[in-house]
């Protein structure tokens, strides 16, 4: 029985390399080509330049920011909270993500034609999505940590660094338990138009309803809806508590931390998951309106590019949730210390002000409200 292909809009493109002669593409069945023809009718020519530009910027900025963040968080910053374990792992996840981007850049620059083989497609595609959900998971852990620190301080001081390590280990085990079956479960590439090979997209309807459905449903519910709900709930609770304390620097920094996390999730992850839900309904043929499916496809391309920006925004979390003096002025103070004259008799910097207080001027009031006193400056509040 002849298979009728849906027409698609032609656009001027450079000739794509023929992939039919390469052995790794032989796993693409005729059913895949036939059933995925719906994707051929969905065009978004802007995606090639969009992905290339966004991914290139994210690669350069994200690599510099996250490598520097790993260095500072691991070696240079004095921690006053064990939650720095979450931030180190978040920076590590982002660093792994930006290492995948050169493959994605070449893929989109080559008009969505994958040339690196099936296994590379499986690994890079899986790492791309693991970054999304591990980032959200670590965001949630940080918010819960700040919530406990502000509203239940006596419980918070009993939490040991071992507890944080256990949580991180569990998250990585869950991530690996999802990655391994997905990588070993079969090819994740498909035939595209003009003898191209698509990676991690253009799946058949049968794949969406069988192999991909559990991953998409679990990722949507447990990877985003529940964690994002926890973040939304923790923000007003912490904000209410902070509003009751006028001069608490640490608690205000906790609110700043949750605010930045909420902002990143709203800008990067919320649009992606809303669009991905519509895309999933389209692929299982719940949504069949042609005009709406074309709009969904274009929206998904935009949100896929937007979600990658999170790895450039995450270092802002480390910056603003920490003491500004340690991060902003660390290298500046070291440079100045070499040029500021020293007092040879004392060995102290000449610009240091020495204040002498007479013992008679010191008074201690037993009734003083210590809760209203400002917290001492902290090298890092994570």
From TrEMBL:
Arranged from A to Z, the UniProt key words for this protein are: Disulfide bond, G-protein coupled receptor, Membrane, Receptor, Transducer, Transmembrane, Transmembrane helix
The subcellular location is:
Membrane
Looking at the record, the residues that make up the G-protein coupled receptors family 1 profile domain are 65-318
Provide the membrane topology annotation: Multi-pass membrane protein
> What stretches pass through the bilayer?
48-73, 85-107, 127-149, 161-184, 217-239, 260-282, 302-320
Q: Name one GO molecular function term.
A: oxysterol binding
Entry's PANTHER family?
COAGULATION FACTOR II (THROMBIN) RECEPTOR-LIKE 2-RELATED, G-PROTEIN COUPLED RECEPTOR
Q: What is this protein called?
A: G-protein coupled receptors family 1 profile domain-containing protein
Write down the species: Calidris pygmaea (Spoon-billed sandpiper)
Could you read off the lineage of the organism from its UniProt record?
Eukaryota, Metazoa, Chordata, Craniata, Vertebrata
């Amino acid at each position: 029985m002849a298979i009728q292909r849906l027409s698609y809009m032609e656009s001027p493109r450079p000739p794509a390399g023929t992939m039919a002669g390469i052995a790794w593409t032989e796993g693409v069945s005729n059913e895949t080509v036939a059933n995925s023809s719906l994707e051929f009718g969905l065009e978004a020519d802007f995606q090639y330049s969009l992905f290339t530009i966004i991914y290139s910027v994210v690669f350069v900025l994200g690599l510099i920011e996250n490598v520097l963040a790993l260095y500072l968080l691991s070696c240079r910053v004095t921690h006053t909270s064990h939650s720095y374990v979450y931030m180190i792992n978040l920076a590590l996840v982002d660093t792994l993500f930006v290492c995948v981007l050169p493959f994605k850049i070449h893929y989109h620059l080559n008009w969505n034609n994958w040339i690196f083989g099936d296994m590379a497609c499986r690994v890079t595609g899986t790492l791309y999505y693991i970054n999304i959900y591990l980032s959200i998971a670590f965001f949630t852990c940080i918010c819960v940590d700040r919530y406990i620190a502000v509203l239940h301080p006596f419980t918070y001081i009993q939490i040991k660094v071992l507890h944080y390590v256990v949580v991180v280990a569990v998250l990585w085990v869950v991530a690996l338990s999802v990655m391994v079956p997905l990588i070993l479960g079969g090819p994740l590439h498909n035939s595209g138009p003009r003898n191209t090979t698509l990676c991690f997209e253009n799946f058949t309807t049968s794949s969406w309803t069988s192999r991909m459905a559990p991953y998409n449903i679990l990722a949507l519910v447990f990877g985003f809806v529940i964690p994002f709900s926890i973040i939304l709930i923790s923000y007003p609770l912490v904000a209410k508590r902070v509003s009751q304390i006028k001069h608490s620097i640490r608690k205000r920094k906790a609110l700043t931390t949750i605010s930045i996390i909420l902002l990143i999730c709203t800008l990067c992850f919320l649009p992606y998951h809303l669009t991905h839900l519509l895309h999933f309904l389209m692929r299982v043929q719940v949504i069949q309106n042609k005009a709406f499916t074309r709009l969904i496809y274009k929206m998904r391309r935009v949100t896929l590019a937007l979600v990658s920006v999170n790895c450039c925004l995450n270092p802002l979390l480390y910056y603003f949730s920490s003491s500004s003096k340690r991060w902003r002025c660390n290298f500046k103070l070291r440079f100045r210390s070499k040029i500021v004259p020293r007092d040879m008799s004392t060995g102290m910097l000449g610009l240091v002000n020495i204040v002498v207080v007479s013992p008679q001027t010191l008074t201690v009031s037993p009734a003083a409200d210590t809760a209203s006193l400002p917290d001492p400056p902290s090298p890092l509040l994570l």
